[in-house]
Amino acid sequence: MPELPEVSAIAAYLDSRMAGLPIRRVDVASLSVLKTADPPYTALPGRVVTAVDRIGKYLVIRTAGDDGEIDLVIHLSRAGWVRWSGGMSPRPLKPGGKSPIALRVHCGLPGEGFDVTEVGTQKRLAAWIVRDTSDVERIAGLGPDVLAVSRDEFGAILRAHSSRIKNLITDQRVICGVGNAYSDEILHTAKLSPFATAKNLTDEQIDALHGAARSVLLDATARLEDSEVATMKSEKRTGLRVHARTGLPCPVCGDTVREVSYTDRSFQYCPTCQTGGKVLADRRMSRLLK
């Protein structure tokens, strides 16, 4: 799932190519992707892109016209991605086809624009066309951006929750921007167990967690912003130290990276760096170990 670094890098990539250019046409191959009907997607052609940025893990294409601002908001969910092209076909997309392309935006010169794609059978990609991003209910319910939270604000949020820290920092209603992959990296950098209780963290642990969140996310964003959109996924994988590295040696201490599996996801950690050498129980088999 694209998280803050990927969405931020994609936004910067698209902004460098689209800002100041008109949208010529929008093709929708899957109407189920659109979660709003007013304004319609047909209101976008003829408008000028003013900026592309992000809110949490949401991509926001901002446009201007005679009737003010209209935003195209995209959530890539688990299997969505963006693909820029300078040689896009002028033929409209066929609704209901087998292509992974759900949405196509023609912008700038003929042949230029981007596709929003989704692979797999679980269709969770979503797009909204709104006059204000707060009109997107999911955005209105987001917590503060993880990179905008001061250390004291971060500490207050942790003190107010009795959740496991892994669950808390991936709960977009509490703090937005972090998902499964980068939470593994943040916790490994901070040397914290994924099952530690948020409100029981010491001041030193809160300092470490806040600093790790900033360093991991900012470093990943800087690395990805030097990449083409097409190579960001592979570049992300090369920068991960524990996530998706089950069975491999920890790059810090050499211990074997372990995994805890759930029905639809898993996460990874280093016992030596994070849990005092303890191997955490698999949630599918037994209770959590602290």
Automatic annotation (TrEMBL):
Q: Which SUPFAM superfamilies match?
A: Glucocorticoid receptor-like (DNA-binding domain) (SSF57716), N-terminal domain of MutM-like DNA repair proteins (SSF81624), S13-like H2TH domain (SSF46946)
GO MF entry, a single one: class I DNA-(apurinic or apyrimidinic site) endonuclease activity
Signal peptide positions on this chain: none
* Superkingdom of origin: Bacteria
**What CDD domains does the database record attribute to this sequence?**
BaFpgNei_N_1 (cd08973)
Has UniProt tagged this entry with the keyword Hydrolase? yes
Report domain Formamidopyrimidine-DNA glycosylase catalytic positions: 2-155
User: Could you identify this protein by its name?
Assistant: Formamidopyrimidine-DNA glycosylase
